[in-house]
Design brief:
This protein is of the alpha+beta class and 203 residues long. It is built from ten helices and four strands. A four-stranded antiparallel β-sheet has the order 3-2-1-4. Helices cover 62% and strands 11% of the residues. It folds into three domains: 2-100, Winged helix-like DNA-binding domain superfamily/Winged helix DNA-binding domain (Arc Repressor Mutant, subunit A, Orthogonal Bundle), CATH 1.10.10; 106-150; 155-202. It has helices at residues 29-35, 45-69, 75-82, 88-100, 106-119, 125-134, 139-150, 155-165, 174-186, 191-202; strands at residues 2-10, 15-20, 23-28, 42-43.
């Protein structure tokens, strides 16, 4: 049996400091209440193992907040970062908890990224999809995020981009025209939209 020698609750920060067999543990108040910990209580081997797991759980949660303090990230990206130091199952559990508490919201974050990519960087839907996927968003979230952009008319934005980078005269050169088309494709715009804009230029 394992005896709880000391126990101090810090309810303001939702933490509990526990001393058991000379080792200091820091766990959440939720885990403390779940395990029924009090000073003088004897723990079975299973309960003692759960105490160690509870300590790792709080450490993982705290590490997650450290990562998020540097900037918002997708759930998948957070799990990847946490997995460098913690068991993957614990990382998923931590991410699920933060998502449930509102600290992670992939749909809302993907919308913010997409708006920035479109309005500031002038990326088209295909490039936005690539960027969101690279940041770890699920395909479901990406498809939902891109839905309004796919129904938009991007030809005016494409025309603005062309005018910023190429002169109308230079686009009469086939090599320059190909360069412009390739660049706009890399920016994420469809060939049909690019073709429409180029045709308008010549008209």
């Amino acid at each position: 049996m394992h005896i709880i020698e000391k126990l101090h609750r810090d309810d303001e920060n939702h933490e509990v400091f526990v001393v058991c067999e000379g080792h200091k543990y820091r766990i959440t108040t939720v885990d403390c209440d779940r395990l029924g910990l009090e000073e003088g209580v004897s723990l079975s081997d299973d309960a003692f193992e759960e105490l160690s797991e509870a300590e790792a759980r709080l450490a993982c949660i705290q590490k997650a907040f450290v990562h998020l303090s540097y900037g918002d990230m997708s759930k998948k990206r957070l799990i990847e970062k946490l997995s460098r130091a913690f068991d993957k199952a614990l990382c998923r559990e931590t991410a699920d908890l933060l998502e449930e508490r509102g600290y992670l919201n992939d749909a809302r974050l993907a919308e913010r990224y997409a708006e920035n990519y479109y309005e500031v960087r002038s990326y088209g839907p295909m490039r936005i999809k690539q960027e969101l996927y690279a940041k770890g968003f699920s395909l479901d979230v990406i498809e939902q995020t891109l839905e309004p952009y796919r129904s938009m008319d991007h030809r005016e934005k494409i025309a603005d981009l062309l005018e910023q980078k190429f002169s109308r005269e230079s686009l009469s050169d086939m090599a320059v025209k190909k360069k412009a088309v390739d660049w706009l494709n890399r920016c994420g715009y469809s060939w049909s939209d690019v073709s429409d804009v180029l045709n308008d230029y010549y008209q």
